[in-house]
């Protein structure tokens, strides 16, 4: 029984240590916290030196998505859903592309150099560049 409790506590501590990072193509410019928030709320659609941006999100219900938005946009998933419904309905913004894994985020970036998304820092490889690390 002690072994099971120890194993579960190690698993939980590893999950808690996960660090979400915003990534883009290797040629994309680094961004700051204000740019990150505005990008992921559809308020800016281009970055200097990168041109038009496509935002790639994780699927609703993904723990990384909830963690990311708590740190970057300050919105819960329910608030995001409401926000994007309004933005799309009024024509102010196009909803982000949603994918269900870090591999799919990286594939979107590989296929579209103007794409930005977020993944766990452990999933970063040479195919992407870390553009910003939220606190």
From TrEMBL:
Q: Which residues form the signal peptide?
A: 1-18
Q: Return the SUPFAM superfamilies for the record.
A: Periplasmic binding protein-like II
Q: What is this protein called?
A: Phosphate ABC transporter substrate-binding protein
Please, which domain of life does this record's source organism belong to? Answer: Bacteria
User: Whose protein is this, by species?
Assistant: Ferrimonas aestuarii
Q: Give the record's keywords alphabetically.
A: Signal
The question of whether Signal is a record keyword is answered with yes
């Amino acid at each position: 029984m002690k072994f099971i409790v120890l194993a579960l506590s190690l698993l939980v501590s590893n999950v808690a240590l996960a660090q979400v990072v915003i990534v883009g193509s290797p040629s994309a410019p680094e961004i700051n916290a204000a740019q990150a928030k505005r990008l992921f709320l559809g308020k800016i659609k281009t970055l200097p030196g990168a041109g038009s941006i496509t935002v790639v999100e994780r699927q609703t219900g993904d723990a990384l998505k909830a963690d990311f938005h708590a740190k970057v946009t300050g919105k819960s998933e329910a608030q995001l859903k409401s926000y994007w419904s309004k933005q799309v309905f009024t024509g102010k913004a196009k909803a982000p592309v949603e994918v269900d894994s870090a591999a799919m985020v990286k594939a979107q970036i590989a296929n579209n150099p103007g794409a930005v998304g977020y993944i766990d820092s452990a999933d970063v490889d040479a195919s992407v560049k870390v553009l910003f690390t939220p606190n």
